[in-house]
Amino acid sequence: MRARRSLLDLDDLSGEELTYLFERAREFDLLQSMGASHYLREEMNLPLRGVACVNMFFEQSTRTFTSFNLAELRLGADVVNLSPKDLSLATKGESDEDTAITLSAMGISVLVLRHPEAEYPRRISMVFDGHVINAGDGTHAHPTQALLDIHTLREEFGDITGRNVAIVGDILHSRVAHSLTHGLRRMGANVALVGPETFLPDSYTVAAESSNGAVTVTRDFDTIIPDVDAIVLLRIQRERFSSENHAGTIDDREYIERFQLHGKRLAKLSPDAIVMHPGPYNRGVELDDSVLSFTGWRYAKQIAHGVSVRMAVLDFLVNGIRAGVKL
Amino acid sequence: MRARRSLLDLDDLSGEELTYLFERAREFDLLQSMGASHYLREEMNLPLRGVACVNMFFEQSTRTFTSFNLAELRLGADVVNLSPKDLSLATKGESDEDTAITLSAMGISVLVLRHPEAEYPRRISMVFDGHVINAGDGTHAHPTQALLDIHTLREEFGDITGRNVAIVGDILHSRVAHSLTHGLRRMGANVALVGPETFLPDSYTVAAESSNGAVTVTRDFDTIIPDVDAIVLLRIQRERFSSENHAGTIDDREYIERFQLHGKRLAKLSPDAIVMHPGPYNRGVELDDSVLSFTGWRYAKQIAHGVSVRMAVLDFLVNGIRAGVKL
Amino acid sequence: MRARRSLLDLDDLSGEELTYLFERAREFDLLQSMGASHYLREEMNLPLRGVACVNMFFEQSTRTFTSFNLAELRLGADVVNLSPKDLSLATKGESDEDTAITLSAMGISVLVLRHPEAEYPRRISMVFDGHVINAGDGTHAHPTQALLDIHTLREEFGDITGRNVAIVGDILHSRVAHSLTHGLRRMGANVALVGPETFLPDSYTVAAESSNGAVTVTRDFDTIIPDVDAIVLLRIQRERFSSENHAGTIDDREYIERFQLHGKRLAKLSPDAIVMHPGPYNRGVELDDSVLSFTGWRYAKQIAHGVSVRMAVLDFLVNGIRAGVKL
């Protein structure tokens, strides 16, 4: 095991560590809900005081970028943002690995990476003498999004063993779906992957170890709705739609008819079921406006939990498991 | 009234609140003039400690952007800057309102917005559960610029009731002129709007309530110069000049002859009159170099006051009116 | 002498000040190696608390930009980054001097500038009422790079009087070479400037005063290798290569044959000799991979020293020479 822990996908975390992260995230939820005056008092205990974080987002991002920034600042870190455009010009042909070696020599402890290439963060973590956090790599993984989604489910339901979660949309191309499916099964939840054929994997390989929940793949959303505890809608990228329905594209009217979550489908949900979305959502595609005013709509909770979960991850990677901080 | 106060234009502030802001700005002027060592001692009282601010400037800006950044940092806020280019790509078709909802769910308390669209900040403030500050919206308003200008006048003259202020230039297209005229009249000053016909409003509607000062519209700069206490020069955008004098454009030589402030016009000012400019100024257009060395030139004061006024606005919106902090 | 000290090139520093900076940098090396927990304890003594720094990099940079950012944050400064693209649009034709005047009026104390134009920082320092730091200006100078290189040599050898340092590559176009040659000679080291004719100055003018070390200009790398204590490799910009060998360009195969540092040349070095590079390095051009695993390769040390030296420069410019802070 490496001396410095990274978070590249959920496999990097043991079950015990996952549980710790969710409990720590709850502490940060509380701390943040107590507002500004509290930070004042706790300032001398900021867990990342003096720790330097660099955020390198090679794909554009508003919410994940802002969320990591805020998490780092709230923990007292020194934060430097390197923008993708500046980087491409500034590294002057230097390999990505050499840039990472340079940043760790500089004393940067944490590198948060988003990149269109799958496994880019893993490649960098091989040479970076510090903590790498994957903030989304191609269609591969987005572990902090999965953590915040599971944290949201746990805050709603407590233990999620045996709970049924439907993930709806472009499963095949979604790093969110990949990481979340993996995490839900480890926590004992059952997952239904729902979408048109083009968007679904041919089959789903079930790993033998440490996966307790079942996985179903289905194109029939309406049949499963009454049985689910939670629906996770995925963003449908409009460039995937085509009126001519080429391979890899789908018809938008058909998609909306079969998979859009709207008032009629909401009405079939069980009373305590919730709806989630990683954002940004397309009104009129994967959901209509009735979802946004639905009492079980948890988008805002997810966003808030995103900051707390990232604070928990940062604190855990840098400081390890610690006795509950008096908040 | 909304639970969270915003500053969209000067109408959002009562007379009492205006006075409070100017007094608080004076405290911050003093604090800043005392330099770095003082921050040390006061650190535990930073009024925005733990408060997250996001600056979103959809129009480029050096001075307003830097000024807000500095004000936020000096108050101890956690600051995230989202650049317009990144945003346009990153929101992936998400509506501006949905982005704002997301940012407030994340725990962002203050959103500072500059945007080419008039009333954009108001539109966002309808959905953002926090404080919105208008840092300039189209040709509509620029309230913190008006506040810093009035603060500069008050530091010079004390009570500005009955003082005569000439605003010179492209009144019609200037958000600075709109906000400042409004603010000056509320504080009891008389305003002369000066410029070529193309740049002047056809008429000026005088609001009945809480406007004490008079407004004059004139094309004759030279006649009023001896009577003014202050001249506010506006930036003349060169793209508005045309040798063929199309509608909406003016002739530059004629403009310079009739409205440029230069040595001869300075000589006609009363001894204690001052000259201001929101910046950036065009040497050789609205002013010549003699203005820059004029003893009554208050540009540097305005810039310094800009930071203090913005600190006062941020503190007021977040913390309300407070008993004078011992500085 | 100006009331506010700037660092435009090494001539701005006396010999005594140079020595102080290297000693102070060593203190910051130690402080940083002690890690995050230490910052906590020392927080109230952060030497740039309340001091505002603006970084304006008109040329792209990863390592120098990140290094200055980190140095400023670690000293507790308030940091605002203005990106070159935003600036070119935002200053609206304002002269660079007027922008600088505005920033100093705003209370910005330190301006870190990188610019393609030689002497740009000096031009700005004439009007900016604060401290200007040259972070690289055209082919002219890069003083903090020279300081970190000399600091690295001093940490290796102690007093470097009489030590032999070879600088290899495009001497003519390198601001690193210019500043470093100057600095090494002032510290009493002997410098050999090595490269193909196209990359070498016709002659080297030796300044009479305060230059103790000798300078040799040579095209024969192999002959001097056994006698050097340190080799500083420069980055060779690929655009300078041409297969047709135009004036000002060189042949890449010939360059590699005569000047690349590789295993065979490393073997001829004396046992305690070291190799340095300002980065980013081109594997396969000025060095091959054997250099990167060479025990005397000091690139990582240089990078780490870069932060400490910049902390020392910032502290010195703002606070002057101080009795050693208890670390």
Structure report:
Three copies of one chain form a homotrimer. The first copy, chain A, has two domains: 10-142 and 304-319, 3-Layer(aba) Sandwich (Rossmann fold); 143-302, Aspartate/ornithine carbamoyltransferase (Rossmann fold). In chain A, 40% of the residues lie in helices and 14% in strands. The first copy, chain A, has helices at 15-33, 36-42, 63-74, 84-90, 96-105, 120-125, 143-157, 175-186, 221-224, 252-259, 263-267, 289-292, 299-319, and strands at 52-57, 78-82, 108-115, 131-137, 164-168, 190-194, 215-218, 230-233, 274-276. The first copy, chain A, has a five-stranded parallel sheet with strand order 7-6-5-8-9, with helices on one face. In chain A, helix 8 links the parallel strand 5 (164-168) and strand 6. The longest helix of chain A is centred in the last third of the chain and has 21 residues, at 299-319. The model of chain A has no long low-confidence stretch (mean pLDDT 89). The interface between B and C is medium-sized, with 36 and 34 residues.
